[in-house]
Amino acid sequence: MNCFELFFDSNVYELLRSETERNAIEKGNHAFRVTTIEIKHFIGILLMSGYNSVARYRMYWEKSIDCNYQGISSLMSRNRFEELLRYFHVADNANLTQGDRFAKVRPLWDLLNKRWLKYYPGDRNLSIDESMIPYYGKHGAKQHIHGKPIRFGYKTWSICTSLGYLIHGELYQGASTGNTHPEFGVGGSVVLDLLSRLPPANYTLYMDNFFTSLPLLNELKKLGHDATGTIRENRVEKAPLKDKKEMKKMKIGSYHQCTDVLSGITLVRYNDNNIVTVASTESGVRPIGTVKRYCNKQKKAVDQPCCIVNYNKYMGGVDRLDQNVGCYRVAIWLKRWYWQLLMFPLNVSVNNAFQLYKISPEYKNNRHDLLSFTRYIVTTYFMLKDTTNSTSPTKILVPKSTLAVIKRVADSY
User: Fold this and answer.
1) What is the pTM of this model?
2) Which DSSP string corresponds to 44-113?
3) C-alpha triplet 271, 276, 277: angle, nearest 5°
4) How does DSSP classify residue 393?
5) What is the C-alpha separation between 282 and 103, in angstroms, rounded?
6) 152-177, pLDDT tens digit by residue?
7) pLDDT tens digits, residue range 227-246?
């Protein structure tokens, strides 16, 4: 709980409570009040839906023999939960930033980005890639990336450690907003912007061919950072590498290296299951590693250049993040365009807290996997008692003849 509440601390819960209350009042429910304990109960139910989901969330309150969740039904009534779903909010609608497509979720993302960065473990080998947040409705920033596990949704530029700790996530609003360094393109601009968020240090970055270019690697080297990434053939700037057709005729494990003496950038073309080209300022071919490759022609371990070994070792951080988030993603879905943008940082905070827990001394004595770690957070929040009793307000007996008048006339009159 200490790890999780490094991110979802009192300030974050106060933001959720105050903006939810404000949103209810703006929508006409002037008597609506909510406490921090209720928000924690609400968060607990959302997290529980990730590992104990039902076809319809109302089934959590059913009393049928095939569906009985006494923990939830005793914690909060169904109507109260639907009220919180209806009014759950993180931004003041009257003071949204003009031109920001994600202004409705920006306050929560800003708070959590600061906390993710503050408590990150301090790794120097970081990966940069895109992460997809699923959404199938209509929105100007929704993306379609063919071949991804999540093809439709919002794209987030993410910088992660090799184990999947998200240090900073930046929501993608379109090419017109992301190209802050035109000389390096959109991909290079993303890398430099994310790097500027980190505390001063020397980092080694790993990225795919969308980001990698020789001018970007040269700029990173001037800033004191190393970088390794796959690179597209039209970005090698006529480097004297062997042609791909010639490489395919060579045996698996063959490679060709060339190094620019002035910039210190090394290009390695490697024949694996496919021909891949890697640009690096950190390492080249040596020391040569080995990898197991089995086919009809060759059934033994083959050589693998050092830059390829390092790339495979450290590049999968964002994919590990997506894997962990996807295991127990909040399963209660709403049609609002920003709902998944609120649930994603919640799941990420659980993942980041779990990564911190695994490197803490407590983990050696009391080992948890991600599922049991999430369940511990849920059960802890379920056991919290709300002494204000705001979920069961005192009922005022009103004569039936006056009910119609109350519906038409506001309380101030």
Assistant:
1) 0.88
2) HHHHHHHHS--SSGGGGG--STT---HHHHHHS-HHHHHHHHHH--SS-GGGPPTT-TTTTTHHHHHHHH
3) 115
4) P
5) 39
6) 999 999 999 999 999 999 999 887 67
7) 999 999 889 888 888 888 88
